[in-house]
Structures are given as C-alpha cells and as structure tokens.
Design brief:
The chain is of the alpha+beta class. The protein has one domain: Electron Transport, Fmn-binding Protein, Chain A (Pnp Oxidase, Chain A, Roll), CATH 2.30.110. Helix content is 24%, strand content 40%. The chain contains 4 helices and 8 strands, in the order αββββαββαβαβ. Strands 1, 2, 3, 4, 5, 6, 7 and 8 form an 8-stranded antiparallel β-sheet that branches. The longest helix is centred in the last third of the chain and has 14 residues. It starts with 7 loop residues before the first helix and ends with a strand.
Length: 163
C-alpha cells in the first residue's frame, strides 16, 4: 500500500471492522492527552464517524475547548491499523441519536431519548494506515532480519486525505 493505494473508503472499512477505537482529546488547561475506547458509528456517505457519549463523561467539555481529535484503530489479527486526525463537535441531535441507537447502547442509557446522551461527530481530515503481511510472515521476516543484520519489511503504510 502506498500513498496512492489507500482511499477514504479503506479507512472507513477498517473502522467499521474494528468498531471500537480510541478517541483522543486534549485535557483542559493541560498539554496532556486523554484516550478512551469508544464504539464507532461510521457513516461513510456523510464522511463522518459518530460516537454516542454521556454528558457526564468530560469528552464533550474537552471537545468544546479543543475540537482537534485523533482516533486510532487496531486489528492485530489481520495486522491492519489506522490513525485518523479530525475535527469533532458535540450535539444533542436526537434524530441522529435515534438512528445510531443499538441494543448495546441500552447498557449505558435507558433509551435513545435519555437526556444524558450526546453525540460526538468527527469529520476526518487525514488518516494513516498500516498493513502487515500476517503473523507468521512477520515472525519469519523478523527472524531473517536478526540473522542477516538487515531491516525487516513488515508491511505497507499509506497516508490518506479524507476530505
């Protein structure tokens, strides 16, 4: 995969396959970053990744203060990884919350009309993807590199302009 091989759809496909990603925001008044696992809802036709969140979770405050976020996804079984930089907003869009509601959201809220649910909307700007050749090939490649003193080729990397 080179810079020209990967497309925004490739990124969205990986996000959909992995589903749980790390949402990284910056903490108010601090240079520290904060990451937490979140269930992703990809709407590729909108070019957006959504997350349901709770008003008490601080993510909404952090996004209001600094809308620049990073999302990271890892599928170690298939050796596919992605990092996505984008702009986030928080809303109380009840129609979109109902559209994204799932059985699993019921573990956190009473229903889609629960007043504590908010929607984090991320518009990806840039992404980077990595793909590996598989675990067995990686192990053999690493062993060969150690034995020969060479650098291993462990897969492909691509930068993707999302918007």
């Amino acid at each position: 995969m080179s810079d020209t091989d990967a497309t925004p759809q490739d990124v969205f496909d990986l996000v959909e396959a992995v589903r749980i990603g790390m949402l990284v925001t910056s903490r108010e008044g601090s240079p520290q970053l904060r990451a937490r696992p979140m269930a992703s809802h990809v709407l590729a036709e909108e070019g957006v990744i959504y997350f349901l969140t709770d008003v008490a979770g601080r993510k909404d405050d952090e996004v209001f203060k600094n809308p620049h976020v990073c999302l990271s996804y890892a599928d170690p079984t298939s050796e596919r990884y992605a990092s996505i930089s984008g702009m986030a907003t928080v809303s109380n869009d009840r129609a979109k919350i109902r559209q994204l509601w799932s059985f699993f959201a019921k573990a956190w809220w009473d229903g889609p009309d629960d007043p504590t649910i908010r929607l984090v909307r991320v518009v990806p700007g840039d992404a980077e993807m990595w793909t590996g050749p598989g675990r067995l090939v990686t192990a053999v490649t690493m062993a060969a590199a150690v034995a020969t003193g060479s650098r291993p080729d462990l897969g492909d990397n691509a930068k993707v302009k999302m918007g």
